[in-house]
TrEMBL record:
Database matches in SUPFAM superfamilies: DPP6 N-terminal domain-like
Name of the protein described by the UniProt record: Dipeptidylpeptidase IV N-terminal domain-containing protein
InterPro entries from the UniProt entry: 6-blade_b-propeller_TolB-like, WD40
UniProt xrefs under Pfam families: PD40
Native source organism of the sequence: Hevea brasiliensis (Para rubber tree)
Length: 718
């Protein structure tokens, strides 16, 4: 039976609540009316490139498109084409083709048109190669792109590799060598070569913003690829000519766009030193469109125009005299990842579609069902943080993006059941596993500061809407509660006994009703100078799973890339015998990295986690919100365990990647009910949107940082 093992729900960090879509402007626009919408407006659409006319003529000959258009439509100018990423196909981030007629736009999945891949994957950075002559033969056009369909050999190695698909024959082959990871392919103007930002020879070491990739160049046709490194420490390559590559690089505090002549080896900075300039799109050998941020901002700022991400054109010969594009059309909106149209007469980009809102309007948040790699497990994304199911599967709870309110979906509908006055005050709700008790436990206080008091509270009689609370802890920093299957005891992590370094260990409330008040007793479960956190009781009650830094090497740095301690792995501890501890899954071979938020499947045979086992899938600086976010440290994975023989669960080798995303997918939870089960009334949310108020959206297409709320605070919750 489909989804017989239930459903996994998770939350996507850094994903803008408003959909992204693709637009373009003429160079030197005069008003916002010059902006042109480029797609049909459905779903999230971004990272676009133009399909040249001759390649488009080949594409429309495919059987699935043959009835849609003809070569005459292309020749007459009635039809043009785009290739871009869209999330309309089971919410996967995959490539799509737009046929843009003068009176309509029709969108098709590239995989459907060419029969390439059907597995769960991410695709990105589509660009057209070929079309050049070798002797009397014209090389077929092909689409070059990134996909995450191939598992990497090692943990913490990106799954991103470059493939090409022949647009005439449909033949698909890998260009990235075995054991190598590449990002951001770009095809030279002649169609002969492709440049990539590559991890070749260095791998990924947990970099947060600046991946420090190198740029390699290889032939589109093979053999031979003749792959060679041409630029050290560069990303997002784009060709100005077959000898000139523009790219971005971080130098000191600022990102800049550079121009490299790969024949002479000369490299010069094109953008000014005192601004951030990223994601270049070359127009020719001396002119490039870039996204700029002219003045840095902080989370609390009410931003001015210079603090938004805007598209400008720079000349390598006169970098101090750029042409402003989007400052004219929508000054209070962020614009991302420019691309060139009609030889540079127009510049395209993507941005949020918040211009469709009036100030103070609500933003609809849909709960999206996704394509799952597990045939017997459903998968969906919740538009709220820390989703949690009641044991009987009848209720779903989560907190809003500002960590201000607790929402519940059940037979009474979707509503707020508890609310605090300000943001960053409540998180990590979890149901008492005795459904008769109708109790939610939450953490109340600031979420990312171990030095601050953080209390665990119970919200009794949730369904009644009384909005009462009962404190269970008295001081210290306490978080991530989870009850035993019978609902009588509660495990949590705390800094009590943690000393000056605020070490965190696990404790058990022997009476979940009173906590440590009255005759309540607290039993220490783990003990050591490390962080034990993200704990959850097994369905049988025998084991507690948790994430820990206890195996972090003594000579490891104090923090991981200036954030949390890093070196998180997942462990099992016997609930009635804390001397029995087994490490189930680690990140890299050196234990560096993150495997966090473990959660048992309802049958106790698997554990879901959010982890950096697949490293990163995109250049992070190209993402919306990233300058005010933490890190794209994870997708959702599962590992299978033996609940009867603990010794078989040590350092499990095999894992399954559940999600493939440019965003961070985090805090998975698992219910026994399928997404279509009529007894699970929360699944109505997969069809109907809810609309929490957002007073921070600008009607001109922009958004304040508060629109995404708590996602922007630069810390990590552990």
């Amino acid at each position: 039976m489909a989804e017989e093992r239930g459903s996994i729900a998770f939350f996507a960090t850094y994903k803008p609540p408003m959909q992204l879509d693709i637009f373009s402007c003429p160079v030197s626009p005069t008003s916002r009316h010059d902006e042109l919408h480029m797609t049909d407006g459905l779903s999230y659409n971004y990272n676009c490139q133009v399909i040249p006319p001759e390649a488009l003529k080949t594409i429309i000959k495919r059987p699935k498109l043959a009835s849609e258009a003809s070569e005459a439509d292309v020749d007459s100018g009635r039809l043009s084409g785009l290739v871009f990423v869209s999330e309309r196909d089971m919410n996967l981030e995959t490539l799509h083709i737009a046929l843009r007629f003068t009176d309509k736009v029709k969108i098709f999945s590239f995989a459907d048109v060419y029969g390439t891949f059907s597995d769960v994957r991410m695709e990105d950075s589509g660009c057209i190669a070929g079309g050049y002559k070798v002797g009397n033969r014209t090389i077929d056009h092909s689409l070059v792109y990134v996909t995450t369909k191939d598992p990497a050999k090692d943990r913490r190695q990106p799954w991103t590799v470059v493939y090409k698909t022949n647009l005439k024959t449909g033949k698909t082959e890998r260009l990235t060598p075995a054991g190598v990871s590449d990002l951001s392919p770009s095809v030279s103007p002649s169609g002969r070569k492709v440049a990539v930002a590559s991890f070749q020879g260095k791998g990924w070491n947990g970099e947060i913003e600046d991946l420090q990739t190198d740029i390699f160049v290889m032939n589109v046709e093979k053999p031979p690829l003749e792959r060679k490194g041409v630029i050290r420490n560069g990303g997002w390559p784009t060709w100005g000519s077959d000898n000139v590559i523009f790219f971005h690089r971080k130098v000191g505090k600022y990102w800049g766009v550079f121009r490299a002549d790969i024949s002479s080896g000369e490299t010069v900075r094109v953008t000014p030193d005192e601004i951030d300039a990223i994601t270049p799109a070359a127009i020719n050998a001396t002119k490039v469109a870039v996204a700029t941020i002219r003045k840095k901002s902080s989370f609390s700022d009410v931003r001015e125009v210079k603090q938004y991400r805007h598209i400008e054109i720079f000349y390598s010969t006169s970098p101090q005299q750029p042409i402003q594009i989007t400052q004219i059309t929508r000054p209070k909106a962020d614009h991302f990842n420019p691309f060139v149209i009609d030889g540079g007469k127009r510049i395209g980009y993507h941005r949020c579609k918040s211009d469709l809102l009036k100030h103070g309007d609500d933003i609809q948040r849909n709960f999206h069902k996704l394509h799952s790699p597990h045939p017997d497990v459903g998968l969906f994304r919740v538009s709220g943080v820390f989703p949690t199911f009641s044991k009987d599967g009848s209720k779903l709870a989560f907190v809003d993006n500002e960590f201000k309110a607790v929402w519940v979906a059940d037979s009474q509908g979707l509503r707020i059941v508890f609310e605090r006055k300000g943001p960053d005050n409540i998180f990590s709700p979890v149901w008492n596993q005795d459904p008769q008790k109708d109790i939610l436990y939450v953490c109340m206080g600031p979420s990312f500061n171990a030095g601050k008091t953080l209390e665990i509270c119970a919200i009794p009689n949730v369904s009644s809407g009384q909005r009462q609370r009962r404190k269970l802890t008295t001081g210290f920093n306490n978080a991530f509660p989870s009850t035993s299957p019978d609902g009588k005891r509660l495990v949590f992590r705390s800094t009590r006994d943690g000393g000056e370094n605020k070490h965190k260990n696990l404790y058990i409330m022997e009476d979940a009703e009173v906590g440590e008040y009255g005759n309540g007793k607290i039993t220490r479960l783990t003990n050591g100078p490390w962080t034990d956190t993200h704990c959850q009781w097994s369905p049988t009650g025998d084991w507690i799973v948790f994430s820990s830094t206890r195996d972090k090497p003594k000579d490891a740095p104090e923090t991981d890339n200036y954030l949390d301690p890093g070196y998180f792995a997942v462990f099992l501890v016997k609930a009635n015998d804390p001397s029995v501890v087994v490490r189930v899954i680690k990140s890299g071979d050196d234990l560096a990295g993150h495997v966090n938020h473990p959660f048992f499947s309802p049958d106790g045979k698997s554990i879901s986690v959010t982890a950096d086992l697949a490293a990163v899938s995109i250049d992070p600086i190209s993402l919306p919100l990233f300058l005010h976010s933490v890190r794209p440290y994870g997708d959702v994975f599962t590992v299978n365990i033996d609940p009867d023989d603990i010794n078989k669960n040590k350092d499990v080798k095999k894992f399954i990647r559940i999600t493939h995303s440019r965003y961070e997918n985090s805090t998975p939870t698992w219910t026994k009910f399928a997404t279509e089960d009529p007894n699970a009334t929360w699944n109505l949310l997969l069809k109907d949107p809810y609309t929490p108020s957002c007073p921070y959206a600008y009607p001109d297409g922009g958004e304040s940082w508060h629109m995404t709320g708590h996602l922007c605070i630069p810390k990590r919750c552990c």
